[in-house]
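FAQ: What does a multi-protein file look like?

Like this. Sequence, then C-alpha cells, then the next protein.
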Amino acid sequence: MSPESTGQNEHYLRVIRRRFRTWRGNRPFWAGLFTMVGGLPIAYFPYANMHLGNMTLAMSTTAGAGSLIIGILLITLGLTMWFHHIVRVFAGVAAILLALISIPVANIGGFLIGFLFALLGGALSLSWAPGEPVADEAAPEAGVPAETAPEGLAFAKVEPTAGHPGGELLGAGVPQQEPTKYDTAVEVDGGRHRAG
C-alpha cells in the first residue's frame, strides 16, 4: 500500500461531500431548490396567522385550496427536477406557468417571494443542459499520418499552392459512414406484409 493512497484514510464527511457534489452536478440542482423554495410561501401564507399584539391577521383568501395545490405542485416539480432530470424542460415550463398563476390566486404569488423563486427555478431548469463527457483521446492534429489516426476519420491531402506548402494530411473531422447492410432474404414478399 502506497503512502499516497488516501482512499481508506479519508474522512467519511469528505466522501459524502464529494458524492453529493457529483450528484448535484448531474442534474439541475439549483433549479429544483429554487422551485421548491418558491412553493413553500405560496402554500403557507394563505393558512398563516400573524399576531400583532392582541390583534390577529388572517391572510386566508377564498382560493386557499388553490394556493395549497399550486405550492404542492411546485414542490413536486422541484423534486422532479432533481430525481428525473430528463423531463427538466416540462418541469421548467410547468413551474413558470404555476408561478404566473399564483399571482392572482395565492396572495400575489406568496407576496412575490414564492413567485420570484418559482420563476427563477423554472428558468434555470429550462436553461440547464447536461455536461459533455470529456473525450479520453484527442482528435488527430494536422500533419498526422493516416496510418496513426483513429480508424474511420476522413483525411484530405493538401496540394501545394502559393500560400500553402501542402503535402500534409488534414483531418476533415467527419467520420466516414459505411453503407447500410441489410439482408435481402427477409424481403421475400417484395416488402409487403401478409395480413394473417
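And here is the next protein:
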Amino acid sequence: MHQFTELFQNYYHKFVHFANSYLEDEAAAEDIVMDSFMYYWENKAAAGSIDNPQAYLLSTIKNKCLNALRAKKVRLKANDNIRDYNYRLLEASIFTLEACNPTELFSEEVAQMVDEAINSLPQQTKRIFVKSRFQGMSYKEIAEEMNTSVKNVEKHMTKALKILRVALKDYIPAILFLMFFK
C-alpha cells in the first residue's frame, strides 16, 4: 500500500501532464491517469510482480490516450461529414433559388407537368393524394370514405410523394410557390 501511495504521489502530476500534452484536455487527462492507477491497483496481483510500475502505468496511459484520440478522430470525421452534407444542401438551395425564374412560375408548362405527374400515379394512390392535397381531407377521413385503414392511406401518400418528388425535382421551387399563392 505504501509503495502505491508513493508511486501515486510521485507520478500522478507527471502522468497527467504527459496525457494532457496529447489530449489537450486536462479533465480527460486526469480521468485517464486516475483510471490507469485504478487499473494498476486492481490488477497488480494478477499481473504478478511488475518490475517497473512507472513504465507499466505509462504504457497503460499511452494506450488509453490513443483510444481517446482515435475516438475523437471518429467524432471529428462524423462532424466533417455532417458539415459537408449541410454545405451541399445549402449549395443546392442556393442553386435552385438562383435558377428560379419568376416568369416560369406562372407558366402553363409547370402546371401541366404537375398534372402529368399526378396522372402518372397508380389510380388508388392518385385518388388518395387528390383527396388529401386538393380536397383537404385528413388521412382518417380518407380512410373512412374509402373503407381502408389510416396506415394504408399513409402508405399511398408516401408512395405518391416519392414518385412526385422524383418526377418534379427540377420544378419543386416553382411548385411550392404555386401551391402557396394560388
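Q: Is there any per-entry metadata?
A: Some entries carry free-text notes. For the entry above: The longest helix spans residues 53-99.
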